[in-house]
Amino acid sequence: QVQLVESGGGLVQPGGSLRLSCAVSGTIFSPAVMGWYRQAPRKQRELVATITSDGITNYSDSVKGRFTISEANAKNTVSLQMNSLKSEDTAVYYCNALVRRLTYWGQGTQVTVSS
User: Fold this and answer.
1) What is the rounded distance in angstroms from the CA atom of residue 52 to the CA atom of residue 76?
2) Separation of alpha carbons 96 and 5, rounded Å
3) What tens digit of pLDDT does each residue of 84-112 get?
């Protein structure tokens, strides 16, 4: 089975940076699309950024210019570099992957931006 494991979450001050990583295992196929989503307390889960196997990226307007999504390690790892973090970025961040026309989710990692 396909498994996605996130890491890199934590507590950071406003204006600081964090780098999230998601490792994909359990498949010999590279994901067609990988992405990051987030869910803040009492809010709907929302798109943060996606990247295709061809390297095409897409960002939510709220993070564009501050966050960067990328793939590494033969495309079995997706990262999210988060700069200029704001309190509004506080949420559980979830990794997502589309593999062989099926969608998989990680367990989530907490990001808290607070002074």
Assistant:
1) 12
2) 10
3) 999 999 999 999 999 999 999 999 999 99
